[in-house]
Amino acid sequence: MGLIQMLLSRKIAEAERDDRIIAIHAAMGGGTDLDYFQKCFPDRCFDVGITERHAVTFAAGLATEGRKPFCAIYSSFLQRGYDQVADDVDLQKLPVRFAIDTSFMACLPNMVVMAPSNETELMNIVATAAAIDNKGTPLEVIKTQINPEITYR
């Protein structure tokens, strides 16, 4: 099982416990494996189409209302929405969780950037991200198998 599938499985487990957890993607349900989340929670998964900037602002709006949005957007597309990440999420210290390549978000002062090195860490950081209510949380997720023997980077 790769990190994407593990992230999805942990998100589903968290969503079963907390009905404030929302998933958002920009026409990438298959690529982010959120199609299955959509089947489990049809009223809590939103495909906003090819509008990455809107996905970020939508997630920020949900966060202001007490929801716990997880945004799955490819970083190559999210670059167009970087202003929304900086202004709508980081500046306001809103708890939006991003499941992406996080390198370009590390420079934002109010982000808690997390990158798991193994399956156990991934499970723990999803739970931690769901619990953070005062900052954005990008989660580094790669679409490859991981070696369970490696415990650090």
Q: Calculate the terminal CA-CA distance, rounded to whole Å.
A: 19 Å
CATH top level class name: Alpha Beta
How big is the Rg? 14 Å
* Sheet with the most strands, sense and barrel status: 5 strands, parallel
Mean pLDDT: 86
Low-confidence stretches: none
CATH architecture: 3-Layer(aba) Sandwich
Number of domains: 1
Overall body shape: globular
In percent, how much strand structure appears in the residues? 5-15%
- Which structural category fits the helices and strands? alpha/beta
Strand order of the largest sheet: 2-1-3-4-5
Number of helices: 6
CATH homologous group name: Thiamin diphosphate (ThDP)-binding fold, Pyr/PP domains
Q: How many beta-strand runs?
A: 5
**Helix and strand run:** HEHEHEHHEHE
Protein name: Probable 1-deoxy-D-xylulose-5-phosphate synthase 2, chloroplastic
Subunit structure: Homodimer.
Organism: Cucurbita maxima
InterPro entries: Dxylulose-5-P_synthase (IPR005477), THDP-binding (IPR029061), Transketolase-like_Pyr-bd (IPR005475)
Provide a quick synopsis of the model:
This is Probable 1-deoxy-D-xylulose-5-phosphate synthase 2, chloroplastic. With 153 residues, this protein is an alpha/beta fold. The protein is built from 6 helices and 5 strands.
